[in-house]
Amino acid sequence: MPVFRTALRVIFRHPVQLLVYIGLISLFGLVIIQSSFDTATPSFSMSTVPVAVIDRDHSPVSESLTDFLGDKGTLVEVDDSSQSIQDAVAQGQVALIVIVPHGYGSAFIAAARDGATAPEVETITSFAVAYATLAQSQVDNYLNGLRLAAVAEPVWDDGDLVAQARAIASVSATFEVPHDSAAVSSTTTFDFFFVWSSYPMTLGITALVAMAFTAFNLGETRRRQLASPMPSTRLNLQIMAASLVTAGLTWVYLCLLALLPIVGGAPLWVADPSHAALVSVAALVFTSVPLSLGFLLAQFQASSMVINAVSNVVGLAMMFLSGLILGSGSSVSLGGPLDTIKLFLPSHWYAQAIAAAGGVGGAGGVTWGTYLASLGIVVLFAVALLCVALAIGRFRVQSSDGNVVIE
After folding, report:
1. Category of 192 on φ-ψ map: left (φ > 0), alpha (ψ -120 to 50) or beta
2. Is 50 exceeded by the pLDDT of residue 180?
3. Residues 31 and 59 reside in one and the same domain
4. What is the mean pLDDT of the chain?
5. Is the pTM for the entire model greater than 0.90?
6. Is 395 left (phi over 0), alpha (psi -120 to 50) or beta?
7. Pick from 319, 329, 379, 335: which is nearest to 359 by CA?
8. Angle, to 10 degrees, between the axis of helix 198-216 and the axis of helix 304-321?
9. How many domains, the chain?
10. Does residue 290 lie within any of the structural domains?
11. Helices marked H in 182-272 — which ranges?
């Protein structure tokens, strides 16, 4: 298989993609784990969320809501102006801004007692999505308690209602931190590492596969192929086989990194081998996406500079738009149209599969339906990209110099 061996030599003649895109960026995941996870301390502390309340109502309801959020988090003073609000969000001063409109308190209580739709406060979320979600849940808890109190006690005044609402919203569950948290911490770091690895997989495999196919599509090389007795289908299959070997070696490298003590893969394979295997299989299935993407990119016969640029842009876009930079990406709401956009990205469904395996964002057990469906969608993305690449390649061959190539 001379073409197969030549394709491998072409791939391994690109040390930047091998060492930086796959090797170095994968190691960045270890640095993030080291700085973000403390697996040696089995303790828990409640996070305090910086919030701001712009009270335009100045009613007992709005003032009680402000006091309640101040007890649960950290109140930040923000002026009631568009510029101040934008600065506070952009600079990360607050995770959530709550704007209470005029007449909100009386309108909310009246709607609750009449069984009508209650008015809503306006909320503005910062880029710290996890903290904003926590603050939003505290606002919702308070308003739900106020609604229950207004319905249950129709004769109470506003002061009694807000006191009861705060009492309801302040109820919390008691829990105990287990002393043996090794399995939990290993699962968390293991899953996060493979979620992060979607970026180096997309970046490295896409670039290497695209460069391998592009090397065989250059003008002089292409003319020699057409003059040779080897069918183009067989030639492309050998190049694809070399690409599969590259993707497989990348996956093996990531699995070996996951065994390092900082990731915790080795003890996880002992404590929960089914979860570790399911996550590893999900990563293997995900490699089909950059394989197809690299093949698609090669159809345009782009230069190595363009291939590197496109691989970086696509890898970063998939990572950020899917919410993977925030964690598993499966339970993180990005808000607005981004929640719709990420449904059309294979990296989101890859994260869904990892969560369904019972790890980060999962419920502790395998959700087989979600796991298999998510991996199926990832494969469909790869097949769709491959079909588009084949169509573009056929059109390019047929339209080259105005001649139709007949095999």
Report:
1. alpha
2. no
3. no
4. 81
5. no
6. alpha
7. 329
8. 150
9. 2
10. yes
11. 182-196, 198-216, 219-227, 232-258, 265-271
